[in-house]
Amino acid sequence: MSIANILAARIKQGHRTLPFPPDQSVISDRYRGLPRLSPDRCVAGCRACAEACPTGAIRVGDAPAIDMGLCLFCGECAAACERQAIVFSQDYRMAACSRSDLVVDREDRRAATSSAPVKWRLFRRSLKLRQVSAGGCNACEADINVLGTLAWDLGRFGVQFVASPRHADGLLVTGPVSRNMELALRKTYDAVPEPRIVIAVGACAISGGPYMGHEEARGGVGAVLPVDLHIPGCPPHPLTILDGLLRVMGKSDPQTASPFR
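-> structure tokens emitted (261 positions)
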């Protein structure tokens, strides 16, 4: 193929990298994102949503609340609620620095940047991460890998995955941390130079997910290492992962990104 043909084909193909923030066409109609709660629609004494939840992510009291760190986004709670007091929006912006900020009981949640440690500022221009699969099912890992493809091109934001923890700024961990992986995770963490960060990706890494309480799992990264950023989902959408990283790096404007206010 001649150079002219190559250039003509490239011009015809156009720009393949997705814009960020994305337009709505990128998100599937079936996607379940940030839960929306309407406490005024709840019936006193009704526990249908809580009883339908497989991980106990829903608290029912004066007002319902969903812990996104436990939530599998299966939609069983929304299906069980006839009054639609719980619905899942298509908002992918769910990451939070504080574990408590993953509990949704209202719409005006805080941004991941609101409580981001000062050390995140050091990685504003460049962030190198070592990924550790600590007993996961490979679903979260698959969506992390998507970020490295041509359409997403994670490197354009200054974020890269590296092979050695000694070359990393922090760890991005998936899985509930099985006992067989606990020592390996600790050693990998110790090999990362200070100041280091830890990112828990997915319900398993945040709380243990469906493996919570299992004798062979530690119940999430937080039981082993200090976590700086929690990215919920089962698995998290690539947009959720990317948005969380960019927010704490200061590359996303929280003032224009509802529901984080």
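Helices lie at 3-13, 48-52, 76-80, 139-146, 179-191, 203-207, 238-248.
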